[in-house]
Structures are given as C-alpha cells and as structure tokens.
C-alpha cells in the first residue's frame, strides 16, 4: 500500500515497502478472484468483522466454502443462512468492509528481494484517475517534469455516491496524496521536480484510465486482470520498444500495441479507448487553471510551464 522512494547509489530510483504485511477487504476474496491472497491468509492472519464458525474458523460472503449452517456474525449475534432483519433485508454474516491482515512474506508471488534495504529499482511510475471521457486508456509522458505535471492534475469524475449536485465534475486528487500529505502540496510538487534533478536514471511516468465509457455509459475496457495487457505495453516502453504514437498529451499506444487476444471487444473500441480529443483536452487544461491557483506562490513554475506547453501543443 505504501512505497518509500529514494535515489540509489547506482543512479536509479529505488523503493522499499515500509509495511510488514498486507491488508485487504475479505468479502468476495476466493481462489478465483485472488488466489494469492487466499494462499497468504491461511495462517498468522488477523480477521476483523467476519463470521465465526462453531469450529473457530472464519467465513465471509464470497468465500470458496459454502455458508455454515450457523455462525456468530460480525456483530456478535447468532446467524443462519437466509436470515432477514425486521425490514426483510438479508443479514450478512460478515461486514461488507471486513478485513484481513497478514505478513507480506507469506504471499507466494512476493519478490525474493522485497526486504532488500537497498530497495528495488523503479522503471515506471503509474498514476490514474477515474475518467469517463478525455483521458485515454494509457499514455507515456514526455519527460519527468511533464510526468509530475500529469500526476499533479490527476482527477476523477464525481459520482452520485460522492455528491448528487456535482455528478460529472472533476475532483482533483494530485498523486492520490491530497488527503495524506502532511505539508503544503505546492512544496510536495516542488520536491518531485527537485528529485528529477538528483536521479540520473529516471523512471518513465505513465497515466492510466481503466474507466473510459461509451455514449451509453458502458465501460469500454474490461479492467481487473486484463489491465496486465496495458502493463505489458508499459514494460515494453521501458525496454525501448512498444508501439506508440506521439500526441499533444504524450505517447499513446497504437491500436495494435496492446494485446487484445481473447477479448470480446466491439469494433472500434480500441480506437475510442486510445483517442485524444483536442476539444475535451482544451477544456481539461482550462479547468486546471483554477486548481493551480489554490496553491498560490508556492506552486512550482515548472508545472505551470508544462501546462502552457500542453496548451500550445493542443
């Protein structure tokens, strides 16, 4: 969930995980949805707000095991399958947000050098928001500063769950750090800019958007495990290959750059997923102006310059 990044002695950007374990939402976790998680949580695991079976093992909705004939639910009450409350609603044995936490070293897929104090070298950094329009499925930024600018303007379109009155409005959450940064975000952006001058072998910076929709409001990309298809293209770009076309916003995959073998995509889907519509992007750049003003004089001039350069390219 967290990475601490610093310059390595070999000139690369390196990262360590400061946490000892993993945590995750447990309902819906099973061998099909996340086999590595199931392997990880077989022992030495703390569960919260799940159901307790008579044999002192745990259960949750979406488990590989069938529902027990009886259990103690997450509230501490007796529970049976099909039980309903006074409103006739089905009572869940485990809270929908119940969790597991387990030592990271128990995960079968963890890297052998995950605890190396030197950290692991970083080849790419990915940022992304939830955008129904505008942002393509993926693109590579032109430079470190362009990447920092892209990360500083990450946004998601608000849903009814967040605000009924602002549905569709873009809510900016730069680098997904706005709720977590303990000091002025302008200084945080400047720190990223400064780090770009201290690291000889900089990683590439990419933007991804799994949530682009068609005119009917349907997701164009299947997401989940199929996101690995996009990660494969990103790895290729880091290795100096991977097909891409230069656009005003960055290097966007060509329509045949991402492996879609086995996907049931309608004709024209990849073209729409990877399209860069200039009028939409002109509106995007304009909307960033008010956001930038929030940071006053402590907003890096380098990021302002990147915004102006994008506007000129558009």
Give the gist of this structure.
With 314 residues, this protein is α+β, with helices and mostly antiparallel strands. 25% of the residues lie in helices and 18% in strands.
Descriptive account of the structure:
Residues 160-165 have low confidence and may be disordered. 25% of the residues lie in helices and 18% in strands. The protein has a three-stranded antiparallel sheet with strand order 1-2-10, with no helix packed on it. Strands 3-9-4 form a three-stranded antiparallel sheet, with no helix packed on it. A three-stranded mixed sheet has the order 11-15-12, sandwiched between helices. The chain is globular and about 65 Å long. It contains seven helices and 17 strands. By secondary structure, it is α+β, with helices and mostly antiparallel strands.
**Widest sheet: strand order?**
1-2-10
**CA distance, first residue to last residue:** 36 Å
Low-confidence stretches: 160-165
Task: Give the structural class.
Answer: alpha+beta
Radius of gyration: 23 Å
What proportion of the residues form beta strands (DSSP E)? 15-25%
| Element pattern in H and E | EEEHEEEEEEEEEHEEHEHEEHHH
Q: Number of helical segments?
A: 7
Give the overall silhouette.
globular
| Mean pLDDT rating | 94
Largest sheet: 3 strands, antiparallel
The helix content is 10-25%
Q: How many beta-strand segments?
A: 17
């Amino acid at each position: 969930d967290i990475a601490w990044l610093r310059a390595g002695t070999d000139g690369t950007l390196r990262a360590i995980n400061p946490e000892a374990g993993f945590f995750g939402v447990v309902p819906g976790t099973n061998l099909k949805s996340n086999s590595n998680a199931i392997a990880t949580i077989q022992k030495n695991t703390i569960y919260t707000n799940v159901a307790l079976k008579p044999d002192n093992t745990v259960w949750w909705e979406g488990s590989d095991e069938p529902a027990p004939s009886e259990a103690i639910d997450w509230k501490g009450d007796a529970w049976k399958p099909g039980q309903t409350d006074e409103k006739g609603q089905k009572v869940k044995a485990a809270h929908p947000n119940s969790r597991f936490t387990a030592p990271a070293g128990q995960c079968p897929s963890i890297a052998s050098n995950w605890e190396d104090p030197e950290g692991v070298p970083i080849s790419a950094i990915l940022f992304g928001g939830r955008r129904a329009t505008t942002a393509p499925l993926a693109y590579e930024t032109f430079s470190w500063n362009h990447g920092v600018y892209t990360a500083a303007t990450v946004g998601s379109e608000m849903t009814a769950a967040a605000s009924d009155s602002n549905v569709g409005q873009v809510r900016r959450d730069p680098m997904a750090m706005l709720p977590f940064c303990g000091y002025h975000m302008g200084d945080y952006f400047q720190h990223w800019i400064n780090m770009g001058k201290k690291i000889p072998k900089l990683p590439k910076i990419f933007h991804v958007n799994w949530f682009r929709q068609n005119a009917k409001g349907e997701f164009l990309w299947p997401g989940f495990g199929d996101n690995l298809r996009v990660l494969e293209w990103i790895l290729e770009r880091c290795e100096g290959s991977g097909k891409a076309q230069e656009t005003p916003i960055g290097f966007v995959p060509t329509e045949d750059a991402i492996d879609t073998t086995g996907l049931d995509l309608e004709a024209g889907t990849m073209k729409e997923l990877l399209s860069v519509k200039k009028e939409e992007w002109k509106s995007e750049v304009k909307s960033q102006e008010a956001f930038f003003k929030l940071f006053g004089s402590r907003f890096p001039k380098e990021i302002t310059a990147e915004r102006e350069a994008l506007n000129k390219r558009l």
